[in-house]
Amino acid sequence: MIHIPNTPTPELLSSAALEAAASNGATVAQFRLAKHDMRGVSLRDGDVENIGSESNVALSVRVVHSGAWGFAATTELTVQSAASTAFRAIQVAKISAQVAADEVALADEPIHGKKSWTLPIEIDAFEKTDSEIIDFLQNWNHKISGSSIVSHIESNIGMGRDQTFYSDLLGNEISQQRDRISAALTAVHVSDSGFEDMRTCAPPAGRGWEYLTGTGWDWESEIARIPEYLDEKVKSPSVTPGAWDLVIDPTNLWLTIHESIGHATELDRALGYEANYAGTSFATIDKLGSFKYGSPIMNVTGDRTSDHGLSTVGYDDEGVAAQKWDLIKDGILVGYQTDRSIASKIKMERSNGCAFADSALHSPIQRMPNVSLQPGTEALTTKDLISNVESGIYVVGDKSWSIDMQRFNFQFTGQRFHEIKNGEIVGQLKDVAYQSKTPDFWAAMRQLGGPSTYLLGGALNCGKGQPGQVAPVSHGCPSATFTKINVLNTRDESAK
Known about the structure:
Blueprint (H helix, E strand, L loop, with lengths): L9 H14 L4 E17 L2 E19 L2 E7 L4 H19 L16 E5 L11 H15 L7 E17 L4 E19 L2 E6 L19 H17 L6 E7 L1 H13 L4 H4 L29 E4 L20 E6 L2 E2 L6 H6 L9 E2 L8 E2 L3 E4 L8 H6 L3 E6 L4 E3 L5 E4 L3 E6 L2 E6 L2 E6 H6 L1 E4 L6 E10 L4 E9 L2 E10 H6 L1
Parallel strand pairs: 4-6, 8-15
Antiparallel strand pairs: 1-2, 1-5, 2-3, 5-6, 6-7, 8-24, 9-10, 9-14, 10-11, 12-13, 15-18, 16-17, 17-20, 18-19, 20-24, 21-24, 22-23
Helix pairs in contact: 1-2
């Protein structure tokens, strides 16, 4: 699957690296060859602002020797370099063994042999020329450029492709490819009193170009309504702070899930391994199986198999097969995200396949799967949820956010805030942010939308690790109702 012109095949490079590792005493050896391609085009007011592309290719070898990890990588793709990289990894392991607190232990994983996996797409976005992408975005711009409320328009399309080859001493040889695409249009209104903006809410997705032509998202309808939404926002009153009932759309709730559940249930965080950089977690292992994370209707899964998920794979970067499992069941914390070495720390029999590296130049670390809140059992629509609220706010789209290092105290804003009175939308509010503590917020969830409201949101740039790595990840959820959540007026807060 992965082919690099004028270089040895992945199998030849792998063979040289693994033979060198084994002959020099490695008890575990993992070889990775990875090619990552990215493209992006952005426009401002119909003119090209940026066109960029990036491609990187490298190989790496990770070993366990003398009970410690060793890792080395190179961009030189030759048989000799592959073997010397394995030798360097062993030298690193020998040095690490002198200071390591304990020996590396890996949770078991079945041998999968020779496998290949490709994330399904319909139209290859990388085959589109820059001119075609520019024309496509200009067509979007033309749809709203005549509106008097719109002062400026920003639009962009980005795409990525990961191709990897993994092998190890056990006999696994796994080739994979996954694609992703994202796009957004933002309309800006500028006046003497400042500016307001309104952005499309379409999430990035594990899809091809077909995503931008209506498969999975109604772009035409949303873009056509952007001026209307922006005009209403400009004229809307500022929110009165206090306790409000919220109906939160999946286009906003996915980010709250990411920050307050996704990061909090990373086992390396819970064990303190990220304390010096990305933080820890209030969801420590003494709480496993007993802690009330939220309402009894709350069921959250970790999933590496979701259709079109940004974190969907066939196998992770340690050769562990993709899985789906419970993180929160009936409101109780019941699981974590793990890789093989972290799983062994709490005597799990098997990793749930969350090892990932954003480049062959980086060592795999535990990264987030698709973490998703499951829909309710009743076939409730978002309109049904709104109809059950006497006085509240319907929150749509993500924007800024803030959360503490233990993933406990947080604050989120959004794109649109529609006021609800007597079960009906009556207009927009502005300057809205909702604030809570993670367990208090999820305990306040009183009603879930049904499967028809479920949407897979996500982010392309979740950061973690030292040296820093970024990872794409999706979060599915339905619309949901939360009672008596503290709402702040951001204009008043910023004035303090």
